[in-house]
Design goal:
This protein has 113 residues and is of the alpha+beta class. It has three helices and four strands, in the order E-H-E-E-H-H-E. It has a single domain, classed as 2-Layer Sandwich (Alpha-Beta Plaits), CATH 3.30.70.100.
Length: 113
């Protein structure tokens, strides 16, 4: 009887897209809620999104600006991220949220273990 040799598997690549939104001073709490709900709904519309999470800055280090929201979108690869960026639903969301940015910072990184 022959022994089964373990197969070599490449580790799963995980890409995180981190988006920091600084809202305009004129945005209302209701509008922020509407935009967050729209962003969160993309997980149901765009199948390459593996995970979505968000939160408001609660840092005690006093390095933050006011009205900062952090979003993290997880993909299984750069290819998934690229499909998300070009997806029509993402473009609709981008058009709806852009007028409400005072500043935005986007960082994509591949998890290093």
């Amino acid at each position: 009887m022959a022994c089964n040799q373990p197969t070599q598997q490449t580790p799963q690549q995980v890409l995180r897209n981190v988006e920091l939104f600084e809202w305009t001073d004129s945005i209302t709490p209701q509008k922020i809620t509407e935009l967050i709900e729209h962003f969160a709904s993309l997980k149901n519309e765009i199948d390459v999104i593996q995970d979505f999470e968000y939160g408001t800055d609660v840092s005690v280090e006093w390095l933050c600006k006011k009205n900062i929201q952090c979003f993290i979108v997880t993909f299984d690869s750069e290819k998934g991220r690229d499909a998300y960026l070009s997806h029509p639903e993402h473009k609709i969301f981008g058009d709806s949220v852009t007028p409400w940015f005072k500043n935005v910072l986007v960082v994509d990184y591949i998890i290093q273990n």
